[in-house]
Amino acid sequence: MGPVARLLAQRISLGLLLLFLVSILIFLGTMVLPGDVAQQILGQSATPEALANLRAELGVNDPPVARYFEWLGGLLTGDLGTALTSGQSINEAIGRRLSNTLFLAFWAALITVPLAIFLGLLAVRYQERWPDKLISATTLTTISMPEFVLGYILMFFVGVRLGWLPPTAVGFRPDGDLLSRLESIALPVMVLTLVVLAHMMRMTRAAILNVMQSAYIETAELKGLTTFTVIRRHAFPNAISPVINVVMLNLAYLVVGVVVVEIVFNYPGMGQYLVDHVTKRDVPVVQACGIIFAAIYIGLNLTADVVSILTNPRLRHPK
Q1: Which of 236, 230, 232 is closest to 217 using CA atoms?
Q2: Secondary structure letter of residue 89 according to DSSP
Q3: Among 49, 67, 196, 198, which is most exposed with the fewest C-beta within 10 angstroms?
Q4: 19: closest CA among 306, 296, 307?
Q5: In the prediction, which pLDDT does 1 show?
Q6: What is the rounded CA–CA span in Å between residue 283 and residue 154?
Q7: In this structure, are residues 273 and 285 in contact, taking their beta carbons and an 8 Å threshold?
Q8: How far apart (Å, rounded) are the C-alpha atoms in residues 204 and 120?
Q9: Where does 90-316 sit in CATH, by number?
Q10: d(C-alpha 213, C-alpha 96), whole Å
Q11: 242 φ, ψ to 5°?
């Protein structure tokens, strides 16, 4: 087995091991959630006997180890279980919600990734001059503001005062036409773009500046090439690996970190679905959402590692 194949096998094995450990943490975390799902279903007027019968029917009194392995077995077979409060299949509900979250994250990423790389290149081209300082100051401001603050500011000024866009995503319909869906998610996409763009641009700028200090960059400059040509032909291609890592990490945030944005704009995605069922103490739904978020985050980080390995010339062309 070559060095590339060995490293890839190690990364994939570590990713699977990490996902297994995370599943244990998620299960243990849901066990310590306060509240009682039986009380949520039957209401405050339920008798102790009715509550005890419902707990036994739902299986919440079973030994934790037995419940964990039953849940893990369902995960391995693709069965996420049934929601305790509604009796509906979690697979079907999450399928709809996850597609909505991915739709939101896709459009945010489609805007953010090329814009962040362009602004990073522009900041390097005009390093320490007013374009670089303006871009850095703007992104530093947005990265310092929580998502819900940006969300409420845009909601008030753009959605309410100016009336340019819907202030919330209540009107979002998954089966609607593309234009109406894009209009409904415009403000959430703007918030995600502003938050993720700042971090992605600053890391892109730092990666390219790090490469610009290399000896071959100085050689290219001595040949009379323009600054932009040096950046485009020599610096950026060699900075792709760290840039890809930054992009993947922020894509993971777009999918996993949309919970606050979905709540602020009342968007029917995974984040809102998770929060709704946390309040109901619906443990199977919370566990299913948690493991899916973890799998997406670990998967994108694993993809970043794999791409970094494949783009490493010392591994692809060993001596």
Answers
A1: 230
A2: B
A3: 49
A4: 296
A5: 59
A6: 34
A7: yes
A8: 5
A9: 1.10.3720.10
A10: 48
A11: -65, -30
Closest CA to 32 of 291, 278, 272, 260: 278
Q: Identify the residue whose tokens are 């403000």.
A: 187
221 is written with which tokens?
A: 């400059």
Residue type, 88: Q
pTM of the model: 0.79
Angle at 97 between CA 264 and CA 100, to 5 degrees: 75
pLDDT tens-digit readout, 107-139: 888 888 888 888 887 887 787 788 888 888 887
The three-state (H, E, C) secondary structure of 162-184, written as one string = CCCCCCCCCCCCCCCCHHHHHHH
Reduced to 3 states (helix: H, G, I; strand: E, B; else coil), residue 128 is coil
Q: At 150, phi and psi to the nearest 5?
A: -60, -40
CB environment 143-174: b (16+ within 10 A), e (fewer): beeebeebbbebbeebbeeeeebbbbbeebee
For 241, the token pair is 């690996």
Reply yes or no on whether the pLDDT at 86 is more than 60: yes
- SS3 for 271-300, per residue? HHHHHHHHHCCCHHHHHHHHHHHHHHHHHH
Distance from C-alpha of 153 to C-alpha of 142, rounded to nearest angstrom = 12
| Residue 311 · residue 207 · CB < 8 Å | no
Contact yes or no for 112/197 (Cβ under 8 A): yes
Q: Is the pLDDT of residue 212 over 80?
A: no
